[in-house]
Amino acid sequence: MAPRTPDTPTGAPAPLVDRYGRVHTDLRISLTDRCNLRCTYCMPAEGLDWLPRDQALTDDELLRLARIAVHRLGVRTLRLTGGEPLLRRGLPALVARLAELGAELSLTTNGIGLARSAPELKRAGLHRVNVSLDTLRPERYAALTRRDRLADVLAGLAAAQDAGLAPVKVNAVPVRGVNEDELVDLVQFAVDHGYRMRFIESMPLDAQGAWDRAAMLTADEILAALAARWPLVPVGRPGNAPAEEWRLDGTPHVVGVIASVTRPFCGGCDRVRLTADGQLRNCLFATAESDLRALLRGGADDARIERAWRDCVARKAPGHRIGDADFVRPDRPMSAIGG
Ligand code: SAM
Ligand code: SF4
Questions:
Q1: Which atom of ligand 1 is nearest to the CA of 203?
Q2: Which terminal CB of the chain, N or C, has fewer other CB atoms within 10 Å?
Q3: EC class of this enzyme (predicted)?
């Protein structure tokens, strides 16, 4: 139960609901658009034009929006992401302040630096982490991320597990001709270490605009590769989670597949996203944003910000329409939205 503060309205917050009856309880917060890797399916080798620091929300601004989300809009889950969220200065202190809101708090990271920060983040109140890892082979990792940092990620995963940031989830984006031959190895690695493996279909959200549907491994292909090694028992989708899950038969281990492209789950979507520069997005694929930073910096009170937030969610489209002929990619890439 979230603690109440003097400016919290009394009673349970009215749900954050859109025209289709979808209730939004999950807020993804991008802490920065910067990154220390250059994953080929995400951004170009030279990086991007990072956000000038004065345009990014300060900790106080971010905290205020998160408090409005939890206390006035019924958000129950806060997920910190980026860019690379571990690059945010003073992250443990920010996590500690966010944890006071009482929501479930998780972090999606590439794992670089996690070996050092995991215990401190756990003490600050972080509940769990998702770590991105597309390959277990050092040369391949260096080619895919354009940085030779596999050992750091493996150490980060182990540290997260030791710190109790559980369940530790491992996210991989399988790409044809890149890591498609490693799906079984990745699952076996997760099983051996007590992590939970999830595969994500690649999406047209790379900064270069080079996404190629033919290079995307589909959920069906991922499952076929795994089924050749383990009989798979469908478990379904826990709540509104984007991942559909399968149990490796005869074991307690579960594998998830996030099939945004071939098995869209828009009908059950419960997410809103806040970019590092304070723009609210009602969908990863939205082509419009609501400028909450302008409201914050213009002196708006909480009720005004709550109204803008509800209006933004009310305008949410029924689905992302990736497969449609008139599909329009959002202006921002995944790394600047917060994946
Ligand atoms: N830097 C952190 C990381 O890599 O986990 C957090 C941000 S990253 C954008 C979040 C997730 O989005 C990662 O699991 C990454 O693999 C995934 N991702 C990035 N670009 C993608 C794309 N074009 N399609 C699908 N997933 C993508
Ligand atoms: Fe960085 Fe994450 Fe994008 Fe890789 S996927 S370049 S780690 S933001």
A1: 24
A2: N
A3: lyase
Neighbour count for residue 136 (Cβ, 10 Å): 17
Pocket test for ligand 2, best of 80, 132, 206 (most atoms within 8 A of CB): 132
Token pair for 126:
């972080």
> Taking residues 10-18, what's their average pLDDT?
89
pTM (2 decimals)? 0.95
CB contact at 8 A, 129 and 168: yes
Phi, psi for residue 255 in degrees, rounded to 5: -120, 140
Give residue 30's identity as a one-letter amino acid code.
S
State the closest ligand 2 atom to the C-alpha of 36, by its place in the atom list counted from 1: 1
Q: pLDDT value at position 9?
A: 57
> In whole angstroms, what is the distance from residue 85 CA to residue 33 CA?
8
Residues 27 and 78 sit within 8 Å (Cβ to Cβ): yes
The total of other beta-carbon atoms located within 10 Å of residue 19's CB is 11
The structural domains of the chain, with segments of one domain joined by +, span 26-337
Q: Is the minimum distance from the CB of 175 to ligand 2 under 6 angstroms? A: no
The first and second tokens of residue 99, run together, are 């944890």
Pick the CATH number of 26-337 from 3.20.20.70, 3.20.20.300, 3.40.50.2300, 3.40.50.2000: 3.20.20.70
DSSP-assigned beta bridge partners for residue 290: 280
Q: What is the pLDDT of residues 151-162, one digit of tens each?
A: 999 999 999 999
Per-residue model confidence as pLDDT tens digits over 58-106: 999 999 999 999 999 999 999 999 999 999 999 999 999 999 999 999 9
- How far is 105 from 70, CA to CA, in rounded Å? 12
Ligand 1 centroid – CA 132 distance (Å): 7
Residues 6+ apart with CB under 8 A from 29: 62, 66, 78, 79, 80, 81, 273, 274, 338
DSSP state of 216: B
Q: How far is the CA of 228 from the centre of ligand 2 (A)?
A: 30
